[in-house]
Design a protein that fits this description.
The protein has 259 residues and is an alpha/beta fold. The chain has a domain of 180 residues: GpdQ, catalytic alpha/beta sandwich domain (Purple Acid Phosphatase, chain A, domain 2, 4-Layer Sandwich). Helices cover 26% and strands 23% of the residues. A six-stranded mixed beta sheet has the order 4-3-2-1-12-13. It has a five-stranded mixed beta sheet with strand order 5-6-9-11-10, with helices on one face. Helix 1 links the parallel strand 1 and strand 2. The radius of gyration is 18 Å and the shape is globular.
C-alpha cells in the first residue's frame, strides 16, 4: 500500500474584517505539495453577523453583514482551489467539517425559522459545501461529526463527559488518546499539540488555527494560539502518521508576494 500525504487545518475564520490572503498562500502551498487529501476541520466561516453575544453591544454589530460573511467564506474557498482550476490540475480529495461557527446558521434558523430562504434569507446552502468538498460532515446530534479516514478519527472537536463539552486543556493531545484510544485529530481550541503512543501506533494531534488576526474578545489568549497547518506524512491505514507543522509565517514567506 502506498503511503498518502494529508494536509489538515482548522479555524480559518474567514471574515470581512480581515484579508483572505492567507488562503491564497495555503492554496499555493497545496498546489506545490500536491497532497492526496486536504481536510478542513471547520470554523472556516466566522459568521460574526450571527454571533448572539454581539447583540449586547451595538457598536460591535453596526458593520456586520450576513451577505458579506458568506461572500468572504466562499472567496476563501475559491482562493484555496484557484491554482488547481486555473492550471487544470487534479486537485486533492477535499474533506470538510461543520464547526461551531458554521453551526451559527442552523442556530439562527432554529431561533427564528422566518429567516430561512436560499435566495433572500439565511441558509446553510449558502456555504456551497457540495461545490467545495468531496465529503462534508455536518453536525450530528447537536455536536461535531466524527469521521474516520485511514484509521484516523477527525472532528472539529471531540467531546468529554455527558454534556458534550469540547475536550481541551494543557495536555489536550495526550487526553485525546487517553480518552479515545485511537489516533484522533481535531481543531477548535486554536492551540496546537501532539502526542505519540508509538507502541500502540496511535497519534493525538491538535492542529491550531488559520486565523488572520487577533481577537479583541480573547485578550491574552491570542498569544497562546498557533497559526498554521499540519502536513500528515506516511499515512498508511494503520492509524499512525508523521506530522509536520507549517506555520502561517512560513506559508507567507514561501507562497506570499515576494518582496
Amino acid at each position: 500500500m502506498t503511503d498518502k500525504t494529508f494536509v489538515v487545518y482548522s479555524c480559518g475564520h474567514a471574515t470581512p474584517e480581515c484579508s483572505n490572503d492567507r488562503f491564497s498562500w495555503l492554496g499555493e502551498f497545496l498546489y506545490d505539495l500536491k497532497p492526496d487529501v486536504v481536510i478542513d476541520l471547520g470554523d472556516g466561516a466566522d459568521m460574526r453577523s450571527l454571533n448572539t453575544y454581539d447583540t449586547r453591544y451595538p457598536q460591535a454589530i453596526v458593520t456586520q453583514s450576513y451577505e458579506s460573511d458568506i461572500e468572504c467564506y466562499n472567496d476563501s474557498q475559491q482562493r484555496l482551489r484557484e491554482k488547481f482550476k486555473t492550471l487544470r490540475r487534479k486537485r486533492p480529495y477535499w474533506i470538510g467539517f461543520e464547526g461551531n461557527h458554521e453551526n451559527r446558521i442552523k442556530k439562527a434558523l432554529a431561533n427564528d425559522p422566518r429567516l430561512e430562504g436560499s435566495k433572500y434569507g439565511v441558509s446553510f446552502s449558502h456555504l456551497n459545501t457540495k461545490q467545495w468538498f468531496d465529503d462534508y460532515h455536518e453536525y450530528k446530534n447537536s455536536a461535531p461529526a466524527i469521521a474516520t479516514y485511514e484509521n484516523i478519527d477527525f472532528a472539529h472537536y471531540f467531546s468529554a463527559g455527558n454534556f458534550g463539552s469540547a475536550m481541551s486543556g494543557k495536555h489536550h493531545a495526550y487526553t485525546l488518546l487517553q480518552n479515545r484510544h485511537r489516533s484522533s485529530v481535531c481543531g477548535h481550541s486554536h492551540k496546537r499539540g501532539i502526542y505519540f503512543e508509538d507502541q500502540a501506533g496511535i497519534v493525538g494531534a491538535v492542529v491550531g488555527c488559520m486565523k488572520g488576526k487577533d481577537e479583541g474578545w480573547a485578550g491574552q489568549s491570542n498569544h497562546a494560539w498557533w497559526k498554521g497547518v499540519v502536513v500528515m506524512r506516511e499515512v498508511d491505514g494503520s492509524g499512525s502518521f508523521e506530522p509536520e507543522f507549517i506555520s502561517l509565517k512560513q506559508l507567507e514567506k514561501a507562497c506570499g508576494p515576494q518582496k
